[in-house]
């Protein structure tokens, strides 16, 4: 206070003159609060609509294709069991077979140990054989590797045996497959 100024109004608690920019500050604060509140409620409303739409989509089934059966794997079973006649997934060789690698070869598990036919198939595939099928032999008592081949494919027997000998011990002798066999050759992997 300045000397000579009336102090009675000051001491009595009368309000002093308001500052000139205070009204603008209050208005700005109110506007900011309204904008933030509007944004909050707008976002919340949008999220609720999204959740409702998601619930409706989950409840309303969409047309889909009918489920299909899974194809049966061409691999041998994990727990092998002997079979009388394995069903081939590979079609028999059609037309002329020019090399041993063109023959349809059935690789069978004759040991009972899971995976031996698939391992032999992979080995032969690495050698260049193209038409290979795996399965289980009629029993699990085979020793070494037994090779059976159609008479019409006998000229390829030595090539097949030579390729197999790089990794396997061949059983003595080889057998003949019947002319109506679905495969040109059969390789049975024993113990």
Strand content: 5-15%
Which H/E pattern describes the elements?
HHEHEEHEE
Helix content: 25-40%
Determine the structural class based on helices, strands and strand pairing: alpha/beta
Stated plainly, the CATH topology of the domain at 100-189 is called Alpha-Beta Plaits
Structure description:
This protein has 191 residues and is α/β, with parallel strands linked by helices. Among the domains are: 19-59; 100-189, Alpha-Beta Plaits, CATH 3.30.70. The chain is 34% helix and 14% strand. The chain has four helices and five strands; from the N terminus they run ααβαββαββ. The chain has helices at residues 8-12, 22-59, 116-127, 157-165; strands at 104-109, 131-136, 145-150, 175-177, 185-189. Strand 1 (104-109), helix 3 (116-127) and strand 2 (131-136) form a beta-alpha-beta unit. The longest helix has 38 residues, at 22-59. The N and C termini lie far apart (114 Å).
